[in-house]
Automatic annotation (TrEMBL):
One of its GO terms (molecular function) is 2 iron, 2 sulfur cluster binding. Keywords: 2Fe-2S, Electron transport, Iron, Iron-sulfur, Metal-binding, Transport. GO terms for biological process: P450-containing electron transport chain. SUPFAM superfamilies: 2Fe-2S ferredoxin-like. Ferredoxin are iron-sulfur proteins that transfer electrons in a wide variety of metabolic reactions. Although the function of this ferredoxin is unknown it is probable that it has a role as a cellular electron transfer protein. Involved in the in vivo assembly of the Fe-S clusters in a wide variety of iron-sulfur proteins. GO terms for cellular component: cytosol. Transmembrane segments: none annotated. This is 2Fe-2S ferredoxin. Residues 2-104 form the 2Fe-2S ferredoxin-type domain. It comes from the Bacteria.
Length: 111
């Protein structure tokens, strides 16, 4: 069973964590199932960037991003070549190392 290593995040997961991931499960679903409150303002419909994450290892094992995902990622704060939307990136049979960026853009919610 593949695993996702979430790197430490100051607010969401200070110690980081390693979690089992089912093949075909999204990064966001693994995070939520394990109590990591990764924001997802559009309810996983690829219509925002609040679940933006950076896949530090295992990026090439993911299916290519769709045009819709690429369009949304263009709006993400801190975009990197290995950026994906957690609601769209599905785990295959390879382990992933994922970093949750410090900031996301949520125009619907004020901080």
């Amino acid at each position: 069973m593949p695993k996702i290593v979430f790197l430490p995040h100051q607010e969401l997961l200070p110690e980081g964590g390693v979690f089992d991931a089912g093949s075909g499960e999204t990064i966001l679903d693994v995070a939520l199932r394990n109590g990591i409150e990764l924001e997802h303002a559009c309810e996983k419909s690829c219509a925002c960037t609040t679940c933006h994450c950076v896949v530090r290892e295992g990026f090439d094992s993911l299916a290519e991003s769709s045009e819709d995902e690429d369009d949304m990622l263009d709006k993400a704060w801190g975009l990197e070549p290995e950026s994906r939307l957690g609601c769209q990136a599905r785990v295959t049979d390879e382990d992933l190392v994922v970093e949750i960026p410090r900031y996301t853009i949520n125009h619907a919610r004020e901080h």
